[in-house]
Amino acid sequence: MPRKQKYKPQDNNTLNTRYNNNPYFYKKNDSQNNNNLKYNTFIRDLCLEYRNLQKENLELKDQLTLKIKAVEKLKVENELQKDTIDLLNKENEKRNKDKCLKKNLIKENFTLKADNEKLKEQIKIYSNAIVLYQSKMAMKISGQVEPEFDTYFLNFT
């Protein structure tokens, strides 16, 4: 096989026309180079900022998921606390009812004691009356006093 020959331009005119026709081979002036450098640094900065924002976004997403989990835990704790508060309220209502019952029983006991004192006084009066009546009856039976006519027995005839 024959070897490939290297490309050799025959004259300088063809070489110049070739570079002149291709826009990539133009010589750039300094202002274009500066603009390209500025553009490249701008693009590089944008890429860096984009990467940083992506990292920050991932961190914020992680923080958000952690906060969501924390909120869910707090909701569960809140439900448990509501249940305990309901139980405590029920116990408190029972205690209040017991207190009201105790107060009512104390009032009733006080009124019963007052009634008992009145009844004791009436019993004393009646026992004294019975003693007097018994002594009068004994005197009548013994003949010391003439029997009196009692109108109470007239109602039975």
Structural write-up:
The structure is a single chain. This protein has 157 residues and is mostly helical. The protein has one domain (12-144). The chain has helices at residues 12-21, 30-142. The chain is rod-shaped and about 180 Å long. Keywords: Coiled coil. Residues 43-136 form a coiled coil.
Features:
157 residues; 2 helices; rod-shaped; mainly alpha
Give helix and strand order, one letter per element, not per position. HH
Tally of domains: 1
How many helical stretches? 2
The assigned structural class equals mainly alpha
What is the general shape? rod-shaped
What is the helical fraction, as a range of percent?
A: over 70%
* Main sheet properties: none
Radius of gyration (CA) equals 61 Å
Span of the ends, CA to CA: 170 Å
- The average pLDDT value, as a whole number, equals 80
**Stretches where pLDDT falls below 50 for ≥5 residues?**
none
Question: How many β-strands, per DSSP?
Answer: 0
Portion of residues in beta strands equals: under 5%
